Amino acid sequence: MSDAGFHPIRMLKRLRVRLRPTPNQLDLKSVNVGFVDRLKREMPHDQAMELAIGGGFEWIGPIEAALLRHYGLPADGHLVDVGCGSGRLAKPLSADHEGTYLGLDLVPDLLAHARRICNRPDWRFEVVRHIGIPEADGRADMVCFFSVLTHLLHEQSYWYLEEARRVLKPGGLIVFSFLEFSEPSHFEIFLGTVEQAKARIANPLNVFIDRAAIPIWAKSLGLEVVDIRAGGDVIVPEGNLGQAVCVLKKPA
Ligand SMILES: C[S@@+](CC[C@H](N)C(=O)[O-])C[C@H]1O[C@@H](n2cnc3c(N)ncnc32)[C@H](O)[C@@H]1O
């Protein structure tokens, strides 16, 4: 017998404890919708939509779009943008991406804003209840998570990566951004989140991923690690994202 830990679900099932999700601060839907509602009460609607996803609409979106092209998003490819928010990436992409697009988010207001500013009736914007990609198996060329796994528990991020793998074509890529403790500007975010925890403010979490975990997750998921870059690395001429970037591949 090992003391490395116990499997909570198996143990509760063995004890015949009824498994029911408990509503709390980890309820992604209510925390994210509540966060956007608070901003909507404090400022004009469009400003709230842009601030809700962190602002920097004019410069971060083009960097995200350039990163996807840099890593090989085909001009006519199918992109799934998980946690697309109010369209910071979709807006610049909508100008010249000939392929299809599926944007997913928990917050209907953000999706409505994204749909409006992109004006691409051929693109889908859909609400997610918790975690999940409403797409058929093997359809996507690329799945991206910009500043999304930064707000999820590791278990939820891993679950999303499983979903991403399912919907990717063989050879398709996952691009995600993440926060790491070794980066001083990220550590500042951590200290801010400590203050938030002390004040018991129910904002979305800020969660860091240890680089060393990525190959372990990738192996378990049957994915290949293509690239891992620090937040300060300039990968595309449009500038650097600030967050670290990881690219994983579904084997062909
Ligand atoms: C910091 S914003 C980033 C938005 C966008 N990816 C970008 O870079 O402009 C994070 C977004 O992820 C969304 N989000 C958080 N958890 C999610 C989940 N489980 N499923 C889908 N979207 C989620 C939030 O509602 C929010 O719009």
Compose a concise summary of this entry:
The protein is an alpha/beta fold and 252 residues long. The protein is built from 9 helices and 7 strands; from the N terminus they run ααααβαβαββαβααββ.
SSE topology sketch:
Layout: H1 8-14, H2 28-42, H3 45-52, H4 57-70, E1 79-82, H5 90-96, E2 101-105, H6 108-118, E3 124-127, E4 140-145, H7 154-167, E5 168-178, H8 184-198, H9 213-221, E6 224-229, E7 244-249
Helix pairs in contact: 2-3
Bound molecules: S-adenosylmethionine.
General description of the model:
40% of the residues lie in helices and 17% in strands. The chain is an alpha/beta fold and 252 residues long. It has a single domain (27-249), classed as Rossmann fold (3-Layer(aba) Sandwich). The longest helix is centred in the first third of the chain and has 15 residues, at 28-42. The chain binds S-adenosylmethionine.
